[in-house]
Amino acid sequence: MYAERERRPPQILADRSAARYYDRMELKAVRLNIPENGNIIIGQSHFIKTVEDIYEAIVNTSPHLQFGIAFNEASGECLTRVDGNNEELKSNAVDNASAIAAGHVFAVSLRNGFPINVLNRIQDVAEVVNIYCATANPVQVIVAETEQGRGVLGVVDGSSPRGVETEAHAKARVELLQKFGYKR
């Protein structure tokens, strides 16, 4: 893929003491799969025990949640580590993490609850450094690929706005939140 590596001449910095070379980079939009009646959380972490710690954070929040977790290692064996309490959701998390294929990225697939129920607990996990999205919407992950590997630049979560809510929209929003038990 990168057999003919393109190099630019060195760029002299202001102090003229160092030069930099530029490698090729390709941007990709990776569409993820949302589990039926479920949500996903995509984030970045930095340590092999991520899977265990996120498992504990979720299961200690609510024992009724069904979930799967996949974490892509970025060194050593570079495996996708997996855990969870539901085989279908574990498989979904692995599919999403594998499609992203960036080191230190994790994917959580969740059912019988919402990301709002676990997001703070996941963010409190010491090795978690970033959450890219927590959604049931169609989502694409914007990935940069270089000779070294892949990295996540951001996400496209759902659709673009089509207008500003009216009073009727606001009323419907509150009713939906009441239906889910988040508002009185």
Q: Identify low-pLDDT runs.
A: 1-10
Strand share of the residues? Answer: 25-35%
Largest sheet: 5 strands, antiparallel
Number of strands: 8
Largest sheet: spatial strand order: 4-3-5-2-6
The third-level CATH topology is hypothetical protein tt1634
- Structure annotation, total helices: 4
Helix content: 25-40%
Radius of gyration from CA coordinates: 20 Å
Key words describing this protein structure:
three-stranded antiparallel beta sheet, single chain, five-stranded antiparallel beta sheet, 184 residues, 4 helices, hypothetical protein tt1634, globular
What order do the helices and strands come in, and which of them pair?
Layout (H helix, E strand, L loop, with lengths): L25 E6 L6 E8 L4 H10 L6 E7 L7 E5 L2 H14 L4 E7 L3 H9 L4 E8 L3 E7 L4 E8 L9 H13 L5
Antiparallel strand pairs: 1-7, 2-5, 2-6, 3-4, 3-5, 7-8
Descriptive overview:
It is a single chain. The protein has 184 residues and is α+β, with helices and mostly antiparallel strands. The protein has one domain (26-160): 3-Layer(aba) Sandwich (hypothetical protein tt1634), CATH 3.40.1520.10. It has four helices and eight strands. The strands form two sheets. Strands 4-3-5-2-6 form a five-stranded antiparallel sheet, sandwiched between helices. It has a three-stranded antiparallel sheet with strand order 1-7-8, covered by helices on one side. A hairpin with a 4-residue loop joins strand 7 and strand 8 (150-157).
Brief summary of the model shown:
The chain has 184 residues and is an alpha+beta fold. The protein has a single domain, classed as 3-Layer(aba) Sandwich (hypothetical protein tt1634), CATH 3.40.1520.
